[in-house]
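Async update (no meeting this week)

Hi team, since we skipped the sync, here's where things stand on the single-chain job. The sequence we agreed to prioritize is pasted below, unchanged from the tracker. I ran it this morning and attached the output directly underneath so nobody has to dig for it. Comments welcome in thread, and please keep replies under the output.
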Amino acid sequence: MGKISFTNTNNPTIDLSAVINFPEGFDESKSYPAVIVSHPGGGVKEQTAGTYARKLADQGFVTIAYDASYQGESGGLPRQTENPAVRTEDVSAVLDYMTTLPYIDRNRIGAMGICAGAGYTANAAINDPRIKAVGTVSAVNIGQMFRNGWENNVADADAEPLIRMGSDARTEDAKGGEPARFPLAPMNEADAPNEELRQAWEYYHTPRAEYPTAPGYMTARSLDQIIPYDAYHKAEAYLTQPLQIVAGSVAGSKWMSDDLFARAASKDKHFHIVEGANHMDMYDGEKEIAEAVGVLAPFFQKSLNGK
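Output:
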């Protein structure tokens, strides 16, 4: 395990910061399967993405958990930009880097993500067939979530004011000064509309999992890219890779995992439900993560190793 950085091939002015994990007994002269792990919106590599990456490395994979462009310890301005196109391209940029490592088999690279990172991973797989297998945990299609609400009870058209908010923020940003902010999870406990999202506040803003480089908000200008975005666009045609979805049975976000499963063209797709778990339990719940990894590791071993 070690911290690395490398140039983002989609934007050479940005260096991506990442942590690479190696399986026990790693031998640089051998060839290994690999898994890219993408963090939630507002998260960083030191949180849940890093946890899954370490645990998958224990199962025989070289794994990389990375900070998205403009976030964490990666470069780029303005800070905390959450541009879905860039987040999707970041997955392929990490894959580009992996193909340069002599101990990684470029024909055995998979990708997974948590929350919005899962949606971006699905989108990247639609665009990039070099991703040979896809895993998702508590998947969020960030465009759907902001358009339709956490529990899918808002009409698309009713989200139009958020597009306007994003474009207005761009106008204000052009005048200079600090970019306007918009929360990715509740910034205060009192702002949480339900217990599940109260736990999101707790995760990002208390010792439960807070991290200095994960402030929990994005630039408001990001909204005009997020609202029209569909992470699963053309999944019906092009998401053909083996797919393993994991979601909690009582997660308010589960409908977005259901949607991905229904839309994916893959003939080798599976849905594992963790009974009694909500969205946030899958981030750091010890038994919930153990169950998820107990499903994801064999899936990647079969899909990437043919075993």
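Quick observations from my side:
The first helix runs from residue 48 to 57.
Residues 2-153+231-305 form a domain with the Rossmann fold fold (CATH 3.40.50.1820).
Reply here if anything looks off.
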